[in-house]
Amino acid sequence: MSVTWHLDESGLLHVTGTGTVTDEEYLEAHRGFMAATADLAGPRLSIADWSGVTTMQLSTTAIRTSAGVTTDDMRNREGGHRIALVAVAPVVFGMCRMWQTLISESGVECTVVGTREEALAWLRR
Questions:
Q1: Which of 39, 53, 72, 121 shows the greatest Cβ crowding within 10 Å of its Cβ?
Q2: From edge to edge, which strands make up the β-sheet containing 109-113?
Q3: In the prediction, which pLDDT does 62 show?
């Protein structure tokens, strides 16, 4: 149904997917939060919670596009970036692992976990 995002008061970026997620929704949200955080300095922490996704209608092209944009952005930043991806459904978990692999050379620390609590604990370690 949707992909939403917001920055909390601590600067943690929260991305949440629910229902059916399509290429268009996913890439629109990705463009939005990348533009909104482009001028933020220093290290960044992000959590992308896909546990509410029932159907993932994402193409490998959309995943590669978002991974490429993220990689390019992170190479130009100082301070690093840590991203925790939450996935429950096997297909969603696989898509997250694909994205994680694609950004692996960007210097971004990324993990894929099964719960939001695990993700937040990993980000705050």
A1: 53
A2: 2-7, 13-22, 44-57, 81-86, 109-113
A3: 96
Domain residue limits at 78: 2-123
Residues 50-73 pLDDT 10s = 999 999 999 999 999 999 998 888
Domain count, the chain: 1
Cβ contacts of 27 within 8 Å, gap of 6 or more: 62, 65, 66
User: The domain that contains 36 carries what CATH number?
Assistant: 3.30.750.24
Identify which of 18, 100, 26 has the alpha carbon closest to the alpha carbon of residue 59.
26
Going by C-alpha positions, the residue among 4, 39, 38 that lies closest to residue 19 is 4
* Alpha-carbon 8 to chain mean position: 15
pTM for the whole structure: 0.92
Residue 29 dihedral angles phi and psi, to the nearest 5°: -65, -40
According to DSSP, residue 106 is labeled G
Match 């600067």 to its residue by tokens: 11
